[in-house]
Amino acid sequence: MELPGLGEHCSERTCKQLDFLPLKCDACGEVFCKDHIRYDDHKCSSAYKKNVQVPVCPLCNAPVPVQKGEIPDIVVGAHMDKDCKYNPAQQKQRIFTNKCLKPGCKRKEMMKVVCEQCGGNFCIKHRHPLDHDCKGSGHPTSKAGQMYLPCSVQ
Prior knowledge:
Blueprint: E1 8-9, E2 18-19, E3 23-24, E4 31-32, H1 47-50, H2 72-82, H3 88-91, E5 98-99, E6 108-109, H4 143-146
Antiparallel strand pairs: 1-2, 3-4, 5-6
């Protein structure tokens, strides 16, 4: 028994496959099988409405707006000539600049790791007061350990 009312034929003129789960193109509105649903696969004439890509400047990594009908390469080239914020000196910017103050340690960190007691900048390995022979005020202990220190009441 045939079920003529089920499914639709693919709109691609070279395919015309009867598909029981057809897909509708969101740009042109035609019905396609799974093999021809992509814009490139059925040479969609309305793909420019949906398939919008914003080019990025290769120098400053900023998105460059392109108006309808303009050629992206020409617009990016004009951006590079006029509006580009590229700074060659900034390219070699160092990330690990925070040097550990522990004598003999040459490690550097991306972020400052400051000791709460002495105010020195240390690497992750030497961040605790006991690990860098802290000369700061008080005893080199953690906040949790300070609860258990004997206090003198005056």
